[in-house]
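FW: tagging you since you asked about this chain on Friday. Here's the raw sequence from the shared folder, copied in full. Didn't touch anything.
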Amino acid sequence: DFNKASELYQQAIQFAPEYPAGYANYAVLLCTMERYDELEKHVKIALEVPGIYKETLYNQYAIMLERQGKLDQAIENYTKALNYVLTEQGVTTYKAAIARCKAKMA
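HL: got it, structure written out here
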């Protein structure tokens, strides 16, 4: 139940605002639910949390932008995610996302 999950993530953030995983996971949920206005606000707040998973936040934000057809902005955010990723698989994933956006622009 996505609505229940949303409620619980909000509670988790409220009760443990210093715990970064709650913010990152809530961003994934908001993107999945296509609640983009909330996602945009959430990402801005979450990026200020010490130790936050910036890769995840930038990726979810980029996915939102790509779905909205804002491909230049999506590329910018996939690039930001790429700058924080620490795995070869992640590098491959973000490079593919950037290439996909460029192909959609052609």
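FW: The mean pLDDT is 97.
HL: agreed, and The helical segments are 2-15, 20-32, 36-46, 54-67, 71-84, 88-105.
FW: great, closing this out.
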